[in-house]
Amino acid sequence: MATKASTSAARLMMAPAVTLLLGWMLVPLTMTLYFSFADYRPLRGVFEPWIGFDNYARFTSSGSFWDAIWATLIMVGAILAITVTLGILLALLLDKPIFGQGVVRILVIAPFFVMPTVSALVWKNMMMDPVNGVLSHVFRFFGATPFDWLTQAPLTSIILIVSWQWLPFATLILLTAIQSLDGEQLEAAEMDGAPPLKRFWFIILPHLARAITIVILIQTIFLLGIFAEIFVTTQGSFGTRTLTYLVFQRVLESQNVGLGSAGGIIAVILANIVAIFLMRAVGKNLDA
Amino acid sequence: MGQIKLNQVTKSFGDVQVIPPLDLTIEEGEFAVFVGPSGCGKSTLLRLIAGLEDVTTGHIEIDGRDVTNVQPAQRGLAMVFQSYALYPHMSVRKNIAFPLRMAGMDEAEQKKRVERAASVLNLTDYLDRRPGQLSGGQRQRVAIGRAIVREPAAFLFDEPLSNLDAALRHGMRMEIGELHQSLATTMIYVTHDQVEAMTMADKIVVLRAGVIEQVGSPLELYRSPRNLFVAGFIGSPTMNLIEGAEAQKHGAATIGVRPEHIATGDPETSPWSGTVGLSEHLGSDTFLHVHDTGLTESITVRADGEVPLRHGDKVGLTPIADRIHKFDAQGLRIE
């Protein structure tokens, strides 16, 4: 029962956690905002607290800014497409009763537990290495010339690595969604004359709409901030410099905190724009 | 169109045979009800007919065509599921049109059929809603609508009323009965509720553990149950079954008397007597539970609605002589 006393007691008890969370979020955000309007280059000892929008203008006018935005969009879009498509197929397969189902499901989920840095290193050195990589051995076994993934197709390689990492997440969420589908609906569709492909298209896919929406939203949020995979493999070269990586370079490589902060704020704004579009496009699946 | 014939059909799940060899014919236009306690195989039997389960051995014929290995959709049957199995993301209109769309029927004809079905089922005002916005009874009607637009050879109902409350259930029972009268299509209806079976069926099939105990019209089953199981299952309240000396007087191992075939009277002159325990006053009838008769623990009697007997009163009971059912030691009826 929510009496007046218990409500205020609840507020009091939640206060420390809420304050901590707010502080954790607000302090860095405010500092970034503050620095973004300042000319702050610590190694040169420059600190000019207010230079207006100069940082923003410099950040957006450089050619690498638009390249970075394109790289980010292509990367996120491709990873989403791969993980959702393969995720649906894998979830459909894993939903079938098979021998050792529990073990198989855990194995499928395993890549998600590997840290991004580690998985990027493993892919770089053990899978995609042109001399010793597993893939180059496979290529040679079939008589083909080994492919130097990270130099010849760097963007594709990173997309592959990150997709591999996020596929389990998509599979897991879609699998639980498939399991919640009422079997009688499929039987009814079967009796209504829908062959398997049409049952998938008219019954299973609409049922998954909400789960797919959630996968897309959550993944977009995380994928906009991909960093470790790029850092470990290409260091942002060959067209793999995303917005996040550009900000990192501005702050740490150019030692320009003000410029980087402006980039950070721009990234936050862009992420919100993307989120609004996504919510508009797919969010209607979330009501009902 | 719509004669369904099962020929030595069996079904096993692994090593467990849930339906031993079974023969059954359902005539064209008949309303057949499969009834039995839960786990008796009635739903499995329906799913075998629908094609959702494969028969282990035996044959199923619909209108003389062997459909044993025919896909469910090609059998010309329509099914109404217990959960209704409506497609939640489609409007009522699209739900009802779905089988027609799958059959590739042209749009105009689809629209015509959907609207005809909707007007039969009073759904015209709801065609653009989603199933989630409908009440239980309306969902039920949508499920029936989806079945009738296909103009199937037979309808299969799998416990369609079990998710409805008592008042709605009564209403839907009548609607389905009416529908059967107006469509004159074969219907097979599965239920565990003997009241539904008695009120709707042309032919009742009583099942126990996959075995058909008796097939007949509701009154045949009521008048002459073939064995103790059917006797106890059909009729409400259930038949009083009496064993021992009283049964031997009639030359049987068990005798059964329905509550409505026992008259109350003077305790001194009646053949049986006892003390009234609980009495259920329903207005039109009163069900008396009479104890201490020396026959069984309790005998149920249907008396007049305004009978003045109360808890603790002595009462005399007289069974109607030609309404006593006699069963032998194996539980089979003695004529």
TrEMBL record, chain A:
Compartments where located: Cell membrane
Organism: Jannaschia seohaensis
Matches recorded under Gene3D superfamilies: MetI-like (1.10.3720.10)
Transmembrane segments: 12-37, 68-94, 106-123, 155-178, 199-228, 257-279
Record's keyword terms, sorted: Cell membrane, Membrane, Transmembrane, Transmembrane helix, Transport
The organism's place on the tree of life at top rank: Bacteria
Limits of the ABC transmembrane type-1 domain: 69-278
Name listed for the protein in its UniProt record: Sorbitol/mannitol transport system permease protein
Membrane topology, from the record: Multi-pass membrane protein
Chief location category: membrane
Gene Ontology terms: cellular component: plasma membrane
Single Gene Ontology BP annotation: transmembrane transport
From TrEMBL, chain B:
Secretion signal, residue range per the UniProt entry: none
Domain of life: Bacteria
Single GO cellular component term: maltose transport complex
UniProtKB keywords: ATP-binding, Nucleotide-binding, Sugar transport, Transport
A Pfam family this chain is assigned to: ABC_tran
SUPFAM superfamilies to which the protein is assigned, alphabetical: MOP-like (SSF50331), P-loop containing nucleoside triphosphate hydrolases (SSF52540)
Entry's Gene Ontology molecular function annotations: ABC-type maltose transporter activity; ATP binding; ATP hydrolysis activity
Keyword Ion transport annotated: no
InterPro entries attached to this UniProt entry: AAA+_ATPase, ABC_transporter-like_ATP-bd, ABC_transporter-like_CS, ABC_transpr_MalK-like, ABC_transpr_MalK/UgpC-like, Mo/tungstate-bd_C_term_dom, NA-bd_OB-fold, P-loop_NTPase
Residues covered by the ABC transporter domain: 4-234
Family: Belongs to the ABC transporter superfamily.
NCBIfam families cross-referenced by the UniProt entry: PRK11650.1 (NF008653)
Protein name stated in the entry: Multiple sugar transport system ATP-binding protein
Organism: Jannaschia seohaensis
